[in-house]
Design a protein that fits this description.
2 copies of one chain form a homodimer.
Chain A (H helix, E strand, L loop, with lengths): L25 E4 L8 H11 L3 E5 H7 L1 H10 L3 E9 L7 H13 L4 E5 L10 H22 L2 E4 L16 H8 L7 E6 H4 L5 H8 L3 E6 L1 E2 L11 E2 L8 H10 L6 E3 L4 H5 L2 H16 L11
Parallel strand pairs in A: 1-2, 1-10, 2-3, 3-4, 4-5, 5-6, 6-7, 7-10
Antiparallel strand pairs in A: 8-9
Helix pairs in contact in A: 1-11, 4-5
Chain lengths: 297, 297
């Protein structure tokens, strides 16, 4: 447990124990431990002293909504986000998004993360796809408001513009979000997706109360062969988490900090070791920049 | 020769023959036929009726500057660009950039393409690296002016922000370029790097006479494992070349259209077949949007 994964380097600090105030706002996004079921992830968080979890809909469906909600509540965990709604560009996903909103409400989850979707098969109309995202969000807004769940538009790294997310910058996500009230439509700030964006610190300030989730992972080089699994553990790559995190806090964000690392080597490591590394990196690189007053969003 | 590479699909049109007006502005960037020496590429262009070549410095050095200049002139080719100068962020490259300007001048090449460079080893200071690029360009400007060679700032896809090019959007490149006269500092518009940029058509219009090179390749999915070799042949991917090319022409650009495809499968194909595919795709997808009056830049 005193070796970081997947770097196999010695841990730089002792692993914070459950109750350590530095863990107060750390959340585990389930995709960081993709080989764990939801019950395993819940038990893992409880054992590691991680107080919140970002839930994915596929493992949620495997466990069953009612059972999952009970289990999460019994473990005393918050649900920091539900991943994912959206995929607006490649067909009618309206029913699926309504189901996702119901699930988020049942989990007392504040935010449904919206992955915009890529270009439809054979299409080269990026502008049209972006328009479709704006329209679909507008259609979803009354339903989100009715359920008390905030929509979180996730701008995605341009590496995914063709096949996953046509909204490519925080500036562009805010242009979309600002057509709607901030308590209904927010934005997801993800370091992997946004670290390169010119002027991103100004955009984070502009986002202010629209920031509805803060997700962290690193940009590593050489980029792993599968673009979808190319995220690094926080601290292993090129992202300046100090500057980024301070900007998010200065913008008023007081929610959880979700570690979301899609990476084949992380997935191959034992879950408990992954969580221990996440806890150490969070305590070292993120917690010092978070206010101590606890979670208030 | 009637099969496109690397798609192995039947050619949709007959290969344009040398002298075909549709080829008037097609240029071969040498990296599209990376296994060819410079003399081979020059002979290949002449045989295919391609009137311009984008030269790379490494094969240029192998051939020798004087010999290369003579050979290119004897073949009646224009040099559309010299690749690459720059790499400003990772050490003192001043002498190397001055040498590159001399080479461009000797080749009567209008533009030295500047690859900005990535983050210095171990650095997470993206803002600082971007500042360094601005300073280094300013230092290079009087030397470029003295040699009559235009500096072409190449904004690069954010996939390369960490390790190759910290200038990530055309908007950002123009912010840098506009500190200098347009005849000395321009921008390189490359479809692969920029197709995803929100508002890119407006930025192309803003660029106007600053556009000093227009390079084309496609964005293909799934992305090949090596990010550096992930470019597709024009027409094989997701980019709308019609809209992009019209914007570049509407902005006033009258230079060559350089096909630049870094792709292992393209490199593995016979060079003549690669050039035939480039000629067909250019005639089909790009030439219809170019003015017929010929090259005037």
């Amino acid at each position: 447990m005193n070796t970081d994964v997947p770097s196999a380097t010695p841990a730089r600090i002792r692993t914070p124990e459950p109750g350590d105030p530095r863990l107060a706002r750390l959340a585990l996004n389930q995709r960081t431990t993709a080989n764990w079921s939801l019950p395993e992830a819940v038990r893992g968080c409880a054992a590691a002293g991680i107080g919140a979890i970002g839930v994915w809909r596929e493992p949620l469906a495997e466990t069953g909504l009612a059972r999952a909600a009970r289990m999460i509540a019994d473990a005393g965990l918050r649900v920091s986000s539900l991943c994912r709604g959206g995929f607006f560009t490649t067909g009618n996903t309206s029913d699926d998004n309504l189901a996702a909103l119901d699930e988020a409400a049942a989990l007392s989850c504040p935010t449904l993360v919206l992955v915009p979707g890529g270009l439809p098969e054979g299409s080269r109309d990026l502008h049209g796809a972006r328009q479709r995202v704006a329209e679909a969000i507008a259609e979803l807004v009354p339903h989100a408001r009715a359920r008390g769940v905030r929509l979180g538009i996730e701008p995605m790294h341009p590496i995914f513009a063709a096949d996953r997310g046509v909204i490519s910058t925080l500036a562009q996500a805010l242009d979309l979000a600002e057509a709607h009230p901030p308590d209904v439509v927010g934005v997801v700030v993800d370091t992997f997706h946004l670290w390169w964006e010119p002027g991103v610190l100004d955009q984070i300030a502009r986002a202010g109360p629209r920031i509805t989730a803060y997700q962290v992972s690193d940009w590593i080089t050489p980029l792993p062969p599968d673009a979808l699994l190319s995220r690094g553990m926080v601290g292993d790559g090129h992202i300046d988490f100090t500057t980024f995190t301070r900007a998010v806090i200065d913008a008023g964000y007081r929610g959880d900090v979700e570690v979301e690392v899609f990476n084949a080597e992380v997935w191959a490591a034992p879950g408990a070791q992954v969580l221990a590394t996440c806890a150490r990196r969070h305590a070292e690189l993120l917690a010092p920049h978070l206010p101590r007053e606890g979670r208030s969003t």
